[in-house]
Write a structure and sequence with these properties.
The radius of gyration is 19 Å and the shape is globular. By secondary structure, the chain is of the alpha/beta class. The chain is built from ten helices and 14 strands. An eight-stranded mixed beta sheet has the order 1-4-8-5-9-10-13-14, sandwiched between helices.
Length: 326
């Protein structure tokens, strides 16, 4: 069930003071405070409904799943302005991933949560999660960033820049075309080739029909204003402030990092994860590096359910209260 907190006083990192706005969220499994807490940050066009009817991660979250709602309390916030709760920010308001991180941390404060046993974030949700770690005194015991990183590369910024130009049209056409462009970074050439094989459907190639379908599908369920807002958050992922280093920001954390890379990811490319893992090792952090082997590209974390489940189950087996038989 969708629940709502009110963020009554918030100033963005750029100095804009916002009027009070809602922060919506959903809880699954055990009541908060009665079991180990798993916090999940959703991806770009997803939402707080992790499981159940219309759940976008039903294969991972639920009774006896990798994120086991029989054993854990599971919490997911909506990125404010994503429209899932019918709230949108004006176009003039542009939040960064760190702004969203600070809003989520205020949500945790209002819910009286100071410890998170397992924190999972995929794609842009993982970028927000990295900023939550570096901006907070909340204890995040285990962190599983999937298909993400602590900063947006120039490659990501370039993709977002072109989508922004399309979204400035404020039309269904602009939204549909921006989504089609995004799909080229969410999948891989190998994924396209194995699926479509240059097949034609009438006057179109099958891949063209597929792209048109995804553009149409997003416009049916998503507002252009929300997509533009989220695209800017993806563009501005950065868990490290000006004049700081990544090593300085994570040095004091007692978090166990479980970095998950998708081998064919064209958005958050594997080479950047390699650098992040190496930095964590150099400063003595506990870190595992898992790889999802897939031709599906960035979206593999939404497709390769068995591999994702195996990784998350392995992490849960290190957490008291989530270990089978306890």
């Amino acid at each position: 069930m969708l629940e709502t907190l009110t963020i009554s006083a918030f100033t963005t990192l750029s100095g804009v003071q916002l009027e009070p706005f809602p922060l919506s969220f959903e809880c699954f499994g055990k009541p908060l405070g009665e079991a180990p807490l798993i916090l999940v940050n959703h991806a770009l066009t997803a939402n707080s409904t992790l499981t159940g009817q219309n759940g976008w991660w039903n294969e991972i979250v639920g009774p006896d799943r990798a994120v086991d709602t029989n054993r854990a309390s599971v919490l997911c916030f909506n990125i404010p302005g994503n429209g899932y709760d019918n709230f949108f920010f004006d176009d003039a308001i542009q939040l960064t991933s760190t702004d969203v991180a600070l809003i989520f941390l205020e949500g945790l404060r209002q819910l009286k949560i100071s410890t998170v046993d397992l924190f999972i974030g995929g794609s842009v949700g993982g970028g927000v999660a990295w900023s939550m770690l570096t901006q907070s005194k909340v204890e995040f015991k285990h962190f599983v960033p999937i298909a993400t990183d602590w900063k947006s590369t120039d490659w990501i910024i370039a993709h977002c820049h072109i989508q922004e130009r399309l979204l400035q049209e404020n039309s269904d056409w602009g939204l549909k075309l921006a989504r089609q462009l995004a799909m080229l970074s969410y999948r891989s050439p190998q994924s396209f080739d194995s699926r479509f094989q240059r097949e034609r459907k009438s006057a179109k190639y099958a891949v063209e029909s597929w792209l048109d379908y995804h553009g149409d599908a997003l416009s049916d369920r998503f507002h252009a204003k929300a997509y533009r807002h989220l695209n800017q958050i993806l563009r501005q992922i950065n868990a490290v402030g000006e004049g700081e280093t990544f090593e300085e920001k994570v040095q004091s954390l007692n978090t166990y990092f479980h970095v998950v890379t998708i081998t064919s990811d064209l958005l958050f490319i594997p080479a950047e994860d390699e650098k992040t893992v190496e930095k964590l090792k150099q400063i003595g952090k506990k870190v595992d590096h898992f790889k999802i082997f897939s031709d599906h590209g960035h979206d593999a974390f939404l497709i390769e359910h068995q591999q994702v489940s195996a990784i998350i189950k392995g992490v849960c087996n290190q957490i008291s209260g989530l270990i089978p038989g306890t």
